[in-house]
């Protein structure tokens, strides 16, 4: 295993990762990378369940292989491409899906999105998310691709467990975000870690001399304590990336989560209905049940009935008001029109006149039945 390469991608570089994820990685893997015990300042490590592997290894010409029909880029269910976004997210890698080591590449997800956009058999895209985030490089560019795809075909995001940090940047570009009651979303922020090995090296009798050209070339090296000026530079870089993160989220969420609202979360994470109230998601539902509704909508079929009363109640309870928008249309070329009679029952129902004083009111004919909603209309 290439430990120096892994260390280079983790330390002294901003990450779009949940703090607990970063701390857990350093606590568990840091001693192998750095050769000794690791002390983590300002964070506590928590145990995280390992995502199930769904790797499909390809050669480096991903899109050419897919176009040639030699590889299947995704699972397709009734015209809906299912694209998982799971594990630790990194920039590049010549494969699609999650690797056996538990990471997935933005490059591979991009290849899947390109194939879905080009396939005439795909009428909608479902993003299945369970990730604590990952690298900055490539994340915002992938978010732009998802937003562009959603202008062509409906894209829904289904959070199966977590969509934190970089994973939420991806989910935020979907037309609609579904979150389970115990699912998590958010962590709109940036984290950067510096490993100071100076004391360990000194104890082992090793002194490293850094020779560089350029006043800042050696900034943040692991062989000396982090100078305050360098810390401030890294802090400034993190703040700039956080601003870009919030702007990217707002591009996808629109009025549901503005730049100011995204920044105001201060990288907090939200569970279930809290995420809906904060504008980070659109409804609380079981991901599988919501996916069935999405497939039915894409294929012009009636939505399946809720499986249990409790699920129906949970979904009704979680229907957002100001933070919600209607789901995307089944086809990009024929957007669904709002039902003209959605408010007709209140407007057309006649108001009975008050009874005349000291005289019985004349018999009134029965009130006409209110018109029914147009076929296919639904509450969002």
From TrEMBL:
Pro residues bias spans: 351-373
Protein name: Protein C
Record organism: Salipiger abyssi
EC number: 3.4.21.69
Keyword Hydrolase: yes
Family: Belongs to the peptidase S49 family.
Keywords: Hydrolase, Protease, Serine protease
Coiled coil regions in record: none
Sequence segments annotated as region (Disordered): 298-380
Low complexity composition bias: residue spans: 318-350
A Pfam short name: Peptidase_S49
